[in-house]
Design brief:
single chain; about 260 residues; alpha/beta; seven-stranded mixed beta sheet; two-stranded antiparallel sheet; 11 strands; globular; protein methyltransferase activity; transferase
């Protein structure tokens, strides 16, 4: 019996660690801390540029996800080659990715967010960096307000990948950047995104091990989508190592 004890102890430790990493309560606490901390600035530096930060908008300086997304998309400084074509960013927040995409050469960029303050924030940063002629900020719940738009060469969403209970009700708009109750937004994204991708284009999802990767794959299978991990990066976030994933979403082959 003694020889089995260490194995059980390790199993318990691993289970607890996974539970902590994926805990929606911890993510909500992080949201509240970011929103209310007294040293929250009105601007911040990222990718060698200054960015405005409005209240109630996700603050990239308190999370590695925006910097990782820039790297995943080839937009981290220095940009090695011009980026051509169009870009749709879902959940744009401050607009760092959308604006940097325009600065890198994208000629049509739509920055969409369900948070009206984020839409205003992205517009401010587009004007600040002189790309307001190429970046249009839109108040939209995923694709809901994009009627009339042509498909895009790249659709990108750095998602709220932490799974919350299906019956959880958001207390603030800010929490929407952190958790997704019942993965309803993810299911909608996987279902609807092919309509918005131009021929030869890419649908990309930034996810992480804070989310339920296997649960996402189940939803993708139900929606007839194939998920292919294109890039990964592990970073320490607090007490845990978290793996970030750049996932390409495509339509699954028809089953025979």
């Amino acid at each position: 019996m003694r020889s089995g004890a260490p194995s059980n102890a390790v199993g318990i430790h691993v289970t607890l660690q996974v539970s902590e990493v994926r805990s929606y309560e911890r993510s909500l606490a992080r949201s509240n801390e970011s929103l209310t901390r007294p040293d929250r600035p009105r601007s911040f530096t990222m990718a060698g540029r200054e960015w405005d930060l409005l209240e109630e908008v996700f603050a990239p300086l308190y999370s590695p996800s925006t910097g990782i997304a820039l790297d995943f998309l080839g937009l981290a400084e220095p940009v090695r080659a011009p980026h051509r074509g169009s870009l749709l960013e879902i959940g744009c927040g401050t607009g760092v990715i959308a604006v940097t995409g325009a600065l890198a050469g994208r000629d049509r960029v739509v920055a969409a967010d369900i948070n009206p303050m984020a839409v205003a924030n992205a517009g401010m940063n587009a004007a600040r960096h002189h790309v307001a002629d190429r970046v249009r900020a839109v108040h939209s719940d995923l694709f809901s307000a994009l009627a009339g738009e042509e498909p895009f060469d790249v659709v990108f969403w750095s998602s709220n990948y932490v799974l919350a209970p299906e019956d959880y009700t958001y207390r603030t708009m800010h929490e929407r950047a952190y958790v997704d109750p019942g993965y309803t937004a993810h299911r909608r994204f996987l279902t609807e995104v092919p309509r918005w991708v131009a021929p030869g284009g890419l649908a990309l999802l930034h996810f992480s091990s804070r989310g339920d990767v296997e649960g996402l794959r189940v939803i993708a299978d139900e929606c007839g989508r194939r998920l292919t991990v294109r890039r990964t990066r592990a970073v320490r976030e607090g007490d845990h190592m978290v793996e970030h994933l750049l996932i390409e979403v495509t339509e699954a082959p028809a089953r025979r």
